[in-house]
Design brief:
- Helix 11 (245-252) crosses helix 12 (267-279) and helix 13 crosses helix 17.
- The protein is α/β, with parallel strands linked by helices.
- It folds into 4 domains: 3-201, Rossmann fold, CATH 3.40.50.970; 206-313, Rossmann fold, CATH 3.40.50.920; 339-512, Thiamin diphosphate (ThDP)-binding fold, Pyr/PP domains (Rossmann fold, 3-Layer(aba) Sandwich), CATH 3.40.50; 521-574, Alpha-Beta Plaits (2-Layer Sandwich).
- The strands form 6 sheets. A 7-stranded mixed β-sheet has the order 2-1-3-4-6-5-11, with helices on both faces.
- Helix 6 links the parallel strand 5 and strand 6.
Amino acid sequence: MAVATTYPGTPSSEIGTNLEVLSKETGMYFEYSTNEKVALEVGAAAAASGLRAFVFFKHVGLNVASDPFVSLGYSGVRKGMVILTADDPSMHSSQNEQDSRIFARLANLPMLEPATPAEAKEMTLAGFEISEKLEVPVLLRTSTRVNHARGVVTLGEAKKVSLDGHFDKDPMRFVPVPAVARRSRAKQLERMKVAEHLSEESPLNFESGKGSVGVIASGVAYTYAKEFIEDASFLKLGFTYPLPERKLRRFISSFDKVAVFEELSPLVEEKVIQLAKEENCDLRVLGKLSGHLPMAFEYSPETALALKPELKVKEMGKPIDIEPIVLPNRPPVLCAGCPHRATFYAVKKALGNREAVFSTDIGCYTLGINPPMSSADFLLCMGSSVGAAGGFSESTKQKVIAYIGDSTLFHSGLPGIVNAVFNDHRYLLVVLDNGTTAMTGHQPHPGTGRTHVRPTLPLDIEPMLRGLGVKFVQTVDPYDLGSTTAAVREALDRDAFSVIVSKRACPLALMRKAKLERTAYVIDQAKCVRCKTCFTKFTCPALAFDGKDVTITPEMCIGCGCCAQVCPKKAIEVVK
C-alpha cells in the first residue's frame, strides 16, 4: 500500500505505531487525520488516483466515517482500498459494542473477517486483490482479541512504494449528483453479484474436520470452537459478506444439527436459518437465537461449554489448586499529576454549592465520573459534550459545564462550538488541553505541532476559538489552582457561551520525552492536622493514607505542587 490514514482508537491504535516505522522505511505516506471521516476521505482520494490505500479505526470510528463509506459503495475506487474496523466486543475500551458487519450490508461492500494475526495479514493482502477486481473498498472486520493477540506471521520484504499517482477525471462516476448516483446504484448491485461468486470460490471460506454435527464459525470465535468442540465438521467463514450461500446450503444439508459461532449480532445464524427452511427443514440451528449462546459480549473458550448438552465439548483444564488471592478493587484513575484532576478541582471549587450539569466527552478525562470529582453526567460519543451542553442550556435553568480534550476538540468538537456561537447558547466549555492524544498512546493531533515524522505548525486553540466568534476565551494553567478557580468563577458568572482552555502538558508524554522536571514534595507531619483534605478531595494517587498519616509516595509524585495548594494548613512543602 502507498497511503495509510487513521484516527487512533483502541483496539486499532497499535497498527499506527507500526505504520509509523514502516512509512519511514518504505516511503509510504501515513497520517494521523483529525477524525475518521477525514481519514477515509484522504484514503479514498488516493485510491481514486491509482494508489493502494489502507484506512483503519475502531468500530465507533466507522460511525464517524459512515457518510463517505456508504458513498464509496457507489463510486468505487481505481486501486485497492482496505478499510479496517476494529470491533470491541465486551466494550473493553468503548462506549458500545456495535457490530461493524452491518455496515458491509448497509454499504453493499465486501467484507473479510480474520480469526488470527496471521489471517489478518493474509486477508489484508486478499482484501486489496478483491478490491481491485471489484473496484470498490473492502471492509476488514477485526476484533479486540485478534488485534491484541500475538502469533507467528510470515512477512514479505518491505518494498519501497511510489506516491506518483494520477487522478483521471470522470465526473459521471465520482460526482454523485442524483443522475450519476442512480446509474452507480445499478452498477453497485452488479458488482455484488460478482462479489457473491468470489465469496463462493474464496479459499478464505473452507471446511475442515469430519464429524456428526456441523459448526459454522467466523472471526476469533472460530478458534474457540475449533479447539474445544470434538466430533464436528467445521465451515470457517472468512469472506463473510456477501456470504457464500451455495457453500452454506451444501454444508447444512448433511447434518441434523448445526451450531453457529459468531460474536455480537446473529447475522450468519439468521442466514443459516433462512437457508435451512429451503434446504433442510429438519435442521436444528444452535446459536444466539436458539438461546444456547450469549447475544452480548465477546466469546471465550468457555463459551463452547454452553453447547455441552448438544455437542461433544472438551473438558477445560482444571485450575491449579492454590489459595485464592483476594486483590483489592482498584478502579481506573487519573495519573499522579494529571492536569485534568487539577482542572476538575478548580471548577468544583469555583462552582461552590451551585448545581450544575456536567456534559463530558471521550478521553482520559471521562474518569472525572469518579468521586469526589463527580464531573461527568452525560456522554454520547466523540465531540458530543459540546452539542449536548447547548441542549442542556436551552432545556434547563441549571448551570451547564462541558468538558472536551484537545484531540477530541479537533476531531469533532468544533461544529458544536460553531453551533453554540450561532445559536447563542449559554454554558461553560472547558477545553482540557494536555498537548497529546493521551488515552490511545500519545499520537499527534493538529494542536501538537508535529506529525509522526516532522514538526508542523500547531493550531493554537484560544485564537482559533476567537476566530470562530467566541467572545470569552481564557487560557489557564491548571497547576495554578488559584488563578484557574478565579477564571472559572468569572466564566460561570457570565450568562453566555464561555470557554476556559486549561493548558498543561500530560506528564506521561513529558516522561516519554525525558522532559519532565520533578520537584519533590513532603508532608510536614508536625503541621498536618489529619484533616485529609488532600487525600479525600484532591485524590492524587501519589497520596497515601495508612490509617494515621497522609504521606506522599515519592516514586509516584511528579512534583506538580497542586496538593500543596489544596492543603489548608500549608503542611505540604518542597523538599529542601
